[in-house]
Each structure stands twice: as C-alpha cells, then as structure tokens.
Design brief:
alpha+beta, dioxygenase, 314 residues, Glyas_Fos-R_dOase_dom, VOC_core, 5 helices
Length: 314
C-alpha cells in the first residue's frame, strides 16, 4: 500500500510580507529559503521558510497579499500547524515568545505539552518537544541551534466529515491510527518530521479562506516515479487529482478530500538549490523562465522585504 512519509509543506495566506518575514525568520528563527512569486498572480510574493536547506517536512510557504480579506479557521482546513523542537527546549520557547510579545497558551494532548500561539495574521501554531528528527543546522537572531525548530511536528486537521477524512488518511495516504483522546484521533506517518496528524472526531463547520488560514497541506512523494504512482493511486480511490504541475522546486498534484481539505502530493526533488547556490538561498527574487523577461516590472510591483534580526534580539 502507498504510504507517505508525512508532510512535505503547508501553504497559507497572510497580508504584510515584511511582517511575515519578521515573524517566521525573526521570531521563529526559520530560514527564508526561497523568495519567488505566485506563478498565477505575479504581483504577489511566494515565500518559503524552513530549515537550512529547505528540507521536505520543514517548509511553510506564504502568499502575502496586503488586500487579502481576513479568513476564518474552520472545517476543510489545517486548523493548527505544529512545529517540533528538541527535548528540553520548550521553556526557552515559552520565554522567547512572551518576551517578543507573542501570547502563549499551554495545553496537553496525547500526553504531550504544547505551546499554542498565533502569528500576526491569526494563523494558529504550536510547538512541541520530541526527540525524533534531525537537529537544525540553522541559527538566526536569538535562536541557537540546540533550541531551534527542527521542522514540522505535524498538524491538526479540521474536517467537515471526519470519518471520511480518517478513511483517506489510513486507507489512501497510508498513515496508522495510534490513538483517540477527547476531540481528536491521532495518526502517524513513517517519517521523522511532519508525521503526527491529529484529526477532529466530530464534524466542524466550514471555515472561510483568507489571511490567517491555511490554503493546503502537501504530502511527500520520494521521487518522480512514486509521484506518478500516487496520482494513479488517488484516482483509483475515487478522488480527482490534477495533472502533474511543475512548481520548479517540486512536482505537485492536488485533490480535495471529502472533509473539504485541499491535499497536495509533492515530490522531494529537485529542492530549493536547483536555481541558486545553497549558501545564498532566499537572498534574491527567483523567477521561472517565463517570467524572467518581466523581472523589472515584477520587482517594481513587489513590496521590498528583508530578513532582519529583531530589536529584541539585538
């Protein structure tokens, strides 16, 4: 049976691009690994944040659109994006977030302690400690490597039809159900990062897309051959995947599952160093070939942004 290793990336909507950079690079200490544009709307950035190399399982991506409406988190969406940090680092993150003006709530789920908070647009995030997963090799601002975010721990999915989403996770995506507690059932994929998915067990009313909400969640395919197998597998199970789309840094297919959540399956290769040196990731606006002749106009229409150390870390 096909089985994904876990989350490849998560993509969300926000408003202000500099505020987005300040939070994910400045506060969370992630690396801006790619600065490009929305291929369907070149007046809008597409920003990618992750570990040093932009490894699958670490990447959160954003479409910052200042005129975006405010979204409403609900069914048919990722409700909470989970980040994982090394064992013993939770107290560092509690102190850091509070010092930088981020309101933090503590909760326990499946015997794990989580710090829950929101980004400036209201996107719901949480941090959990786990031993699993490689340590980060990236440091920035006030975040040392031994406390840094490793990547995704997973996500909380909000489904309008949780029984159908559960069936998909187990029978199509290949995750294993490992428990149920209170409002959530827990599923585990085989990878070390982005592998723990909590799903609501009672239906949730539909949310509304917009700033502060997740657009889609992408799952990993290890190579192009497996990606084609995934497309056939999804179709054979009654879903309607798109054709394979070249997203420059991975190939993608998309389909909407019966609980309303937009799923993508993305290839691990070729990765983010395909068009710029690994040591210079995220420094320049990278454009696909068909937009390169329009670079001057595109760059003029984009709000300038910079990765900067926050005042609280200076």
């Amino acid at each position: 049976m096909n089985a994904t290793a876990g989350i490849h990336h998560i993509t969300a909507f926000v408003r202000d691009p500099q505020r987005n950079v300040d939070f994910y690079a400045g506060v969370l200490g992630l690396r801006l690994v790619k600065k490009t544009i929305n291929f369907d709307a070149p007046e809008v950035y597409h920003l990618y944040f992750g570990d040093k190399g932009g490894s699958p399982g670490t990447i959160i991506t954003f479409f910052p659109w200042p005129e975006s409406r405010k979204g409403r988190i609900g069914g048919g969406q990722v409700g909470v994006t989970t980040y994982v940090v090394p064992t013993g680092a939770l107290s560092f993150w509690r102190e850091r977030l509070e010092r930088l003006g981020v309101q933090v709530n503590e909760t326990v789920r499946f015997s794990e302690t989580y710090l829950q908070f929101a980004d400036p647009d209201g996107l719901q995030l949480e941090i959990v400690e786990r031993e699993q997963g490689p340590m980060s090799e990236w440091t920035f601002g006030g975040v040392p490597a031994d406390k840094a975010v490793k990547g995704f721990g997973g996500a909380i999915l909000l489904s309008t039809a949780p029984d159908k989403t559960a069936h998909l996770l187990e029978r199509v995506m290949g995750l294993q159900k490992v428990g149920q507690e209170g409002a959530y059932a827990r599923y585990r994929a085989a990878g070390e990062l982005g592998n723990i998915i909590d799903l609501n067990v009672t239906p949730v009313q539909y949310g509304a897309g917009g700033a502060g909400t997740v657009h889609h969640i992408a799952w990993r395919a290890k190579d192009y051959e497996e990606h084609e197998q995934w497309r056939n597998h999804v179709a054979q199970n009654g879903f309607h995947p798109t054709q394979v789309i070249d997203r420059q840094y991975f190939n993608a297919i998309y389909f909407r599952e019966e609980g309303g959540i937009l799923f993508e399956i993305a290839t691990d290769p070729p990765g983010f160093a395909r068009d710029e040196p690994a040591e210079q990731l995220g420094e320049k606006i990278m454009l696909p070939d068909w937009y390169e002749p329009h670079r001057e106009v595109i760059e003029k229409n984009l709000i300038p942004i910079e990765v900067r150390v926050l005042e609280g870390d200076q």
